[in-house]
Amino acid sequence: MDNTNHQTRAADERVFMALRPTETLSPTQFGVVYDDQSAASANLANLNDCLSYASAHGYSVALPPRSIFVDVTEGPVELPSSTLLDGGSAYLVSVSDDRPVLVSQNWLAGKVTGNTQVHNLTIVGTGRGENQHGIILRDYFSTLRGVNVHRMGGVGILIEDRDRSGKSVDGTLVENKVLDCRAMKCAGGGLRAGREANNKITDGILKNFFVRMPDGSSKPPVFIGASAGWFVDNIHTYGGQSEYGLVISNGYNTHVGALYVETFTQAAVFFHSVQQLTYLEHLVARGNRAGAKKPALVQVSPAGYVEHVDVTLNSIQFDAGKGLSGPIALVANQAPRKIDVTLNGYAVRGPNRQRVYLSDHPDSVAGPVSGLKAVAAGRNTDPQLQFHDQYLATRTRAAFGGGGNDLSEIDLGDITPPGATPRQGFVSLVLLEKAGDLNPVLGMLIIRGTGANDLVGRVAPISAQGTDLQSVQVRFAPQADGRFRLLLDISAAFPGGRGSIDVLWL
């Protein structure tokens, strides 16, 4: 006698007699016990029976707002394709280390058929083991809505193209949506979708997603390996020691908007291996833990085969906190000859804003000067320059050109401005006003280095008209007391020109 078939027929008869008219199954119909950790082993088998039966008969599964403990040591909770699991604010709690909790059934074996739905479910792990993922979704046209994942040793939400054996799908898994979800204290990251450059998981939506990283984790809170056609919006990440807040790889008509990144060491957003137009609408970031080599708010790099791509950044706001240990760029372009970066609007605030500069490659950043204005201090007084919310103090002003006064150098004096040291590096503003030109040119004066052998300075224009400033040479003159004086050599920058140049401390 086939005992398996007998058990299946018995389960079919039991469920058929208990079905509600709504054709929604409850796990209690299959023997699942709530709020009882001792039932964890039996719950796994019974819950899988419930989900398998629902898939075979076209029913949905609804959970009550209770806790279901499961022991996934021998295998995970299996979610068949084309199944609706309504969590009903329930908690699915794993008592097993280093094992995934809820997975697409085809990740184990079988065919991908799409249209899986998981709503309003909280998944809780032990926080131990890098293979402990909250949910592994291997599907298309699927939706995770209101799914909260807590305390995983691996990734909170993992969207995979490969099965457990490492075999990838034929074709692509498109139009998966992750909406109104949270990932709290997941050591491997909040969400990881696909792999770089294989273009298997594309055209997705990630919206209204909150990620709190655990202390000590350096994994990115959000990683999208093939971001072609993705829309990423309303993301908040914080905690941990993540190198990057978001990694958006292989961008191809990719749209990213409304990000709040509180913690990063290298970049708040890394657009890696950009293939075609990538667009960032709004980024707010804090720099309380930045301190890596050449950190930036936005870092971009092109795909190796592309000849030219465009990256558009609209509205960047940065809070340069007290923990900021050195200079930081708003934009780091790893290949300015291949990528045109357009930056439209930015604001820098905080106690260390003097350490923030526009870009390591200013010629690759186009866009109008933002935040610079003249403010009248009172009647019959010259207006003061204000950069965003801060008045600027003039350190040096000098005229050049005309009447035989061809100034070749501007002596800025001691290189250590208020509140900074050469070891930390510092930034100030350079303003050029040429006679007959109503639009002043604004640039950033950037100083880095620790002493006589490695002091480096340059002037980076931050306005579209700032090309003249690229010819300004920065030199350091040693003094008898061991300190240095900073000199700007402008003789080659403005031949035959007249005007004045100001250096202002932020």
Features of the shown structure:
single chain; 506 residues; mainly beta; 15-stranded parallel beta sheet; 11-stranded parallel beta sheet; 3 helices; 39 strands; 8% helix; 43% strand; elongated; disordered N terminus
Protein architecture, described:
With 506 residues, this protein is mainly beta. It has 3 helices and 39 strands. The chain has a 15-stranded parallel sheet that branches. Strands 4-6-8-10-13-16-18-20-23-25-27 form an 11-stranded parallel sheet. Strand 35 and strand 36 form a beta hairpin. The longest helix is centred in the N-terminal third of the chain and has 18 residues. The radius of gyration is 29 Å and the shape is elongated. The N and C termini lie far apart (85 Å). The N terminus is likely disordered.
Strands, count: 39
- Tell me what portion of residues adopts beta-strand conformation: 35-45%
The biggest sheet, with number of strands, parallel, antiparallel or mixed sense and barrel status, is: 15 strands, parallel
Number of H/I helices: 3
Cα-atom radius of gyration:
29 Å
* Uncertain stretches of 5 or more adjacent residues: 1-21, 403-407
Mean of all residue-level pLDDT scores:
80
In brief:
The protein is mostly beta strands.
Topology, pairings included?
Layout: H1 3-18, E1 24-25, H2 40-57, E2 60-62, E3 67-70, E4 77-79, E5 84-94, E6 102-104, H3 105-108, E7 117-124, E8 135-137, E9 143-150, E10 157-159, E11 173-174, E12 177-184, E13 191-193, E14 201-202, E15 205-212, E16 222-224, E17 231-238, E18 244-249, E19 254-261, E20 267-274, E21 278-280, E22 283-286, E23 296-302, E24 309-319, E25 328-333, E26 339-349, E27 356-359, E28 365-366, E29 372-375, E30 384-387, E31 390-391, E32 393-400, E33 409-414, E34 426-434, E35 441-448, E36 456-461, E37 473-478, E38 484-489, E39 499-505
Parallel strand pairs: 1-2, 2-5, 3-5, 4-6, 5-7, 6-8, 7-9, 8-10, 9-12, 10-13, 11-14, 12-15, 13-16, 15-17, 16-18, 17-19, 18-20, 19-21, 19-22, 20-23, 21-24, 22-24, 23-25, 24-26, 25-27, 26-28
Antiparallel strand pairs: 29-30, 30-31, 32-39, 33-38, 34-35, 34-39, 35-36, 37-38
